[in-house]
Amino acid sequence: GAVLKNANVSDLTISGSNVTVQNVRVSGGILVQGSNVTIDHVTAQNVSISSASHVTVRYSDLGGGTEDAIHVTSDRGSMVRDVELRSNYLHDPRPSSDAHYDGTQVRGVDGLTIACSVYDGGPYRSQLNAAIYLEDANGGNSNVTIERNWLLGYGFPIFIDPSSNTTVTGNRLGGDIH
Fold this sequence. Notes:
This protein is mainly β. About 0% of the residues lie in helices and about 60% in strands. It is built from no helices and 23 strands. An 8-stranded parallel β-sheet has the order 1-4-7-10-13-16-19-22, with no helix packed on it.
């Protein structure tokens, strides 16, 4: 039931339930491992959601990092469920020369909405894989909606491995896409 508001921190790990993070500047990244977590109007390099449930990331500024801006993975023995990524700005990736960078990489989720966000990869570089990448790993991906996003740059605007009940509608593509 914790609330972190109007603060500056270096890194943040959320492992509890019913947590709200609002108007916070994180100089590094955020790791979410809990449930019923809301991240609202936050600035950080990246957000990782690991075997968590009922997570919302909205109105956030994610950029300048070397790792995926948002990484969703069911890697700790529990499926990630019910994630909403809405109205975020993902920009200015800085991957190393041997990296594989995605704006959002998803490796196992049941229930995901990515909506009304801007993914700006900037000028194309070979390290920029996909703005949104649904990878068939850690139990697969199901019940995914990708709608009304601006996807600029990257090698692929959207890369979808086999998944079930996935809808992609109303997205705009542009920038230096390869």
